[in-house]
Amino acid sequence: MDKASALKKLEQEIIHDNNLPLGTNLIFGEGNPNCDVLFIGEAPGAVEDQQIRPFVGRSGQLLRKHIRELGWKEEDVYITNIVKRRPPENRDPLPEEITAYKPYLTRQIEIINPKIIVPLGRFSMNYFLPDAKISRDQGHLFEVVFHGKTRIWHVAPMFHPAAALRGTTAMKAFGEGFKNLPNMLKKVEEIKSPVL
Ligand code: URA
């Protein structure tokens, strides 16, 4: 089965999973299933829920602008969230909501199999790197062996664009992290990942 069909099938599974928390629209993710770079946010907000697309509000505009400024097309990357429905009042996702949606995110990543995963913000980062600190570790490239699988994932956490919008230091770091992404991609392409 090709990646696009596998993702469609996974989306249907989520839609029909009645045990998942949150009752709003499912915002599965969008972009190129054959992408090199996968961006993962926290959870959709109000604008995302209205448009049924990830990262289309203010944070999303900032994210998408930085993608385009690299000379990349938004359609060439893939954008999704850990929690795929909007928490009420735009509150942070609860630990049990993250836990409930996690297995689906894992399968989504396994299907896409990107060269670099960019978690946006601490919730998404801590899924890959539980002990990491966003202010210390954003902008760095990590190798993560996930769930004892035989594949190393390359993970480059960045500040959440909402944090970048709130402060100049985070905005600067966010911009620098983005500018460095093509280099990181090159580095990952040069590494011959050992098979464990
Ligand atoms: N914030 C997120 O983490 N995800 C979105 O899709 C929108 C805002």
UniProtKB/TrEMBL annotation:
Q: What is its EC number?
A: 3.2.2.27
**SUPFAM superfamilies in alphabetical order:** Uracil-DNA glycosylase-like (SSF52141)
**Which InterPro entries does the entry mention?**
UDG_Type-4/5, Ura-DNA_glyco_family4, Uracil-DNA_glycosylase-like, Uracil-DNA_glycosylase-like_sf
Return the CDD domains for the record.
UDG-F4_TTUDGA_SPO1dp_like (cd10030)
**Keyword Hydrolase assigned:** yes
* A family per Pfam: UDG
Keywords noted in UniProt: 4Fe-4S, DNA damage, DNA repair, Hydrolase, Iron, Iron-sulfur, Metal-binding
Give me the reactions it catalyses.
Hydrolyzes single-stranded DNA or mismatched double-stranded DNA and polynucleotides, releasing free uracil
Chain ranges of the Uracil-DNA glycosylase-like domain: 28-185
The entry sums up its family as follows: Belongs to the uracil-DNA glycosylase (UDG) superfamily. Type 4 (UDGa) family.
> What NCBIfam families does the record point to?
UDG_fam4
Q: What is this protein called?
A: Type-4 uracil-DNA glycosylase
- Organism source for this protein? Candidatus Staskawiczbacteria bacterium RIFCSPLOWO2_01_FULL_38_12b
